[in-house]
Design a protein that fits this description.
heterodimer, A: about 200 residues, 10 helices, B: about 110 residues
Chain lengths: ~200, ~110
Amino acid sequence: MTEQQLIKACQNRERKAQQALYDRYSPLMYGVCKRYVRRAEDAEDVLIEAFFKVLTNIGNFKSEGSFEGWIRRIVVNESLMFLRKGHNFKHMLEITELEMPVSTTIIQELVASDILNLLSILPMGYRTVFNLYVIEGYKHREIATMLNISINTSKSQLILAKKRLRNLLEQCQYPGIELFEMSTDEEEEMATSEP
Amino acid sequence: MKNDFLDLFRQTPPESSSASRPSPKAWRKLERKLDGYDRWRKLMERYAVVMVYLILLLVVLLVPVIITLILRDQQQALSRTPKAVIEVLHEKDSIPGVRAILEKGAQKNKQE
């Protein structure tokens, strides 16, 4: 079944098509949820809620853009809503988060399975901004609006996340890490990102 | 030339983070949610026309009643308004100075 046929069948609320759509996109979207929400049970709840929205609002999907991108936006928004329920980003991000020591073995295991797993070690604030900026490709202005924080907070969280990730990769002697450049000059980072 | 550190994460396709899948009970939960939504939707669709007719009937019945009540209230309010009464004051009640002025005025009017 092509994507268009699947969408059409889902718009007609055919249960088999809904399940096929879920089977096709849920593993990928579960991965997205897990990058934002640490606990597997919570990530699954977020995924269910997001797919419920996808399947009940599929009539609103305009075939102009990517269908996967549309689902992904819903999943990201749902993950942020979940995080907002438990935390106030404004307060959460503006306090200095403690850096918990993590054993090298754990880091090596995480990196070996998937480098993106390393994000799970990061504090919630760092992780959320890093995910939105680096993986999803949102701008600092958009992140600031989404999380109800200032643009500078978004920028500083990204810098801190980058530093922390680099330290973790160096700690586990990630092969070829020295080939990657990271500006440690915060001013430069502020200047290069959007105003 | 060195690569950007962030490319290390950007280059990793998001698919690779999907090594683990949601548990089968996740779909069952979602299915139950969808069943509930479909039931509610069907119920709404079935009763939507009936509801519209009921609302119209209510409007048709209530409008004349409301108009009648308003008119009755207005009539009652009019009937409760006291009629104009001309009070004849006793000489004792009047202020002497004012009375004298009024009497003079009345005499003048008569003469004219």
